[in-house]
Amino acid sequence: MTHQTASPSRGEAQRPRAPIVYVVDDDPSLLCALSRRLRADAYQVETFGSAEEFLSRPRAGVAGCVVLDLQMPGPGGLELQAALAQADDPLPVVFLTGHGDVASSVRAMKGGAVDFLTKPFRGEELVEAVRRALARGAAEQQTRRQRRAWRGRYERLTAREREVFALVVSGRPNKQIADALGTCERTVKAHRAQVMHKMGVQSPAELGRAVEWLGEAFQAAPPANGG
Amino acid sequence: MPPLLKQIRPLALVALSCVAWFNAAFGGSAEAPGAPKKTVLVLYGERLSIPAMRTTEQGLMSALPRELPPEVEVYFEYLDFARFPAAQYGDALVRYLRARYATRKPDVVIAVVSSALQFALAHRDELFADAPIVFSNVDHREVEGKPLPPNVVGLWMEWDYQRTVELALRLQPETREIVCVSGTGALEQLWNEEARKVLGRYAPRVRTRWLDQLPLRAVLEEVARLPRDSVVLFVSMLRDGAGESVLPYEVARQLAKASRVPVYGLAGPLLEQGILGGALLDFTEVGRETVALARRVLAGERPPVLSPPDPAANPVLINWRALKKWRLSEGRIPAEAAVRYRAPSLWQLHPRLILATAAALCLQSLLILRLIVQGARRKRAERSLRDSEERMTLAAEAANLGLWMWDIPHDDVWATEKCRSLFGFEPGERLDFQRFMDRVHPEDREPMREAVQRALQSRRDFDTEYRLLLADGSVRWIGARGHAASDPQDRPGRLLGVSIDVTARKFAQLQLQQQRDELAHLSRVTTLGEVAATLAHELNQPLAAIHSNAEAAELFLQKDPPDFDELRAILSDIRQDGWRAGEVIHRMRSLLQKRPSRMERIEVKGLVKTSDGLLQGVVTARQARLRLEVAPVLPLVWGDAVQLQQVLLNLVLNALEAMADCPIAERQVAVRAGPDAAWGVEVTVSDRGPGFCREKLAKWSEPFFTTKKHGMGMGLAICQRIIEAHGGRLTAENNPERGATVRFTLPSNDHKQEQPA
């Protein structure tokens, strides 16, 4: 299977490098045509004849997207999508399909596919889908990066600080927090300042937004008893 | 004397002397002077019409030539004293005899019956001088007391009463009474006396009753009333009780006729008159012995008078007819008795005739038998032939068969009415081969002629189908089957066979074929329905590629300077994809086309490749893999490419369907094509699905049997029909480990299979 890479220079994985579009299709002719079309719009393109080939070849951790033929002999597009989703930085996927198989498209979209192109499509549609996918990929990568940053800060908090964090974002005053923790109000204040500092926020409101970024990692406070 | 007579006299004298000379010269009856010639004179006392006399004479006459030398002259005189008594005519008779025998002195005188003896003795001196006398038929009692001269000898006559009575008692042991019938003449009285003596000896056991004084009529009446345990002994009767002279011979006949019981007699001649029998005096023998005695006397012997007479010489004779009349047992016949008048068997009478007749009869019977058998056989054969013919005709008519026979040397065609009507010939029309051929459809004439030629050359059977083009322009299909028969010189002699109108069958066949084609087409369309979506995909691939390439080309053109190498590559790719799309359309169209089947040489490899192309989309959609293993060298097969494609497509689709629930990694269909054992090609389609369930395996080829939710159940049935129409076989089986394999064979083209109609 033709392995074509259009990236001019590899070497260091530098951030500002142009994103790469990975095209996976078992039809060499179509593969070639798609690659050609994308290159005409100045995309870096790498082509793969099958899902196995794509998975087995090491890739530079460059941003990009995958254009995937849904129907391929052997492991098909959906399987590859599932495999891709396991990665730290999952590549966004644009699916190509021969016919509007509803079940497959639903599965594909649920699996996070950016787009679903039914053949025959115009080259522009593909380019547009790829552009969207890359944008979304970039956005998602941004989000993931932020989330990772918040998590990193959160993980640096002590257990007591996390307790205080949780009680603060639940909106309780220091006195109550002190009561809940069985300590004095002055100690609570000190912890609170420490948390704000470690998390790099200026206000409790910002602390509340941080909880959103943390998501599941955030350990919520037990519900207030009595009250 | 008249002058004429005077003239004749010397002539007469000459004539007379001539006669004398003639006689002397040829030994005529005229006496030759000086020759010692013996003479015998026989005197019969009675007339010859009396049977006793006649039989005596017969014996005498028969013995004469034997006993006496031929030169002895014998004279006979019949004196008939009963009607001309000697007392009245004696003198005249003497004169007459003296006149006759004056110059012929007899050397021996034979006197038959006592009246003749008495006459001879009485007139011996004046008539015969001392010539010896031999007598016969004389009862010794008649001359008793009268001494006979020395040269008189003879035979005494004697009835044998005793043996006659014993015969009667032997044949009829129940006899209690013997009724003696006799006459009143002198002779009878002598005999009666003797008879009484003999019968007296049986006195206590058997009574004797005499009917010797009654007139004949009374006697006859009397015997008609006799009791059953009696018998009649007829002694004799020359004169009855009324003094009438009667003939014993005649009396015996009447007695035998009238009597209620059997009549026994004593004289031989009576036997033929109906008496039962007796120890009968044989007068013939008496005659013969008399002659023998006369010969001795003539020779100079002096034999004694035979005395006493021996009655035991009388033979016991039985009248067989009478024996039968009285229903007496033959078993009682004594050994010494001779049976006369036994109705001789025809065999005894005419043995040769009977033999000849029997032989002729046998021969005739055999001939008749043979004729009958032959007739029956012929009739049977005719009947069986007729039956067979009738059956044949019936069968032929029932089957609408026309029979025909072509006599090749004479080029004459015989055909049944049915056959003629098939070909549109008139009943009486003369037919030859050409006329038949003229009716054959022009397109079929050559093949038909070839088929006939082949049959004639190979002496094989002839089996063909052809069309007739009838006068009205309609077409009739004829199936003909025939057999070539050789003549004795082993040349084709005739071709005979049957023809049948197969138009309806042929049309049905064509219609069926049409229906089959339609069904196959329907099935193809259905199959394609499944494939259709994926076919769209298949079409989309090149179209999408074309789109992308074209747009890319536009973009590349905008570059400065444009990348012409890239552009060339793009255009080449576009052309390729365009062609590819066309191919897909073409494949689809050939499958969707509705058309009659068309046989051609097919490369199985190409078949598999095309199917692969058609199926790739479906296989992908099903996330399965299709593995192809085609042997590098395969014989060509003869078949319809579209139909075979359909079979392959159908089998692969079935296999894919079967694996719908399998894990993706295991979804694999293998299509293998290789040579089979019989120079053909074997194609197998194997899957790794659950295999056929037992029910499906048993009924897999039945139409409308399906285990699929949406299947018509026609797929395998049609596949099988198609493969069988190609002369192959289609079978299904489960693999040992997992999955199922459907395999079909196609005979090789090299066999030059006949093209299915």
Structure characterization notes:
The complex is a heterodimer of chains A (227) and B (757). In chain A, helix 1 links the parallel strand 1 and strand 2. Chain A folds into two domains: 131 residues, Response regulator (Rossmann fold, 3-Layer(aba) Sandwich); 61 residues, Orthogonal Bundle (Arc Repressor Mutant, subunit A). In chain A, 33% of the residues are buried. Chain A is elongated, with a radius of gyration of 24 Å. The N terminus of chain A is likely disordered. Chain A is an alpha/beta fold and 227 residues long. The longest helix of chain A has 34 residues. Chain B has four domains: 146 residues, 3-Layer(aba) Sandwich (Rossmann fold), CATH 3.40.50.2300; 149 residues, Rossmann fold, CATH 3.40.50; 104 residues, Beta-Lactamase (2-Layer Sandwich), CATH 3.30.450.20; 244 residues, Heat Shock Protein 90. The longest helix of chain B is centred in the last third of the chain and has 56 residues. At the A-B interface, helix 1 and helix 5 of A face helix 17, helix 18 and helix 19 of B.
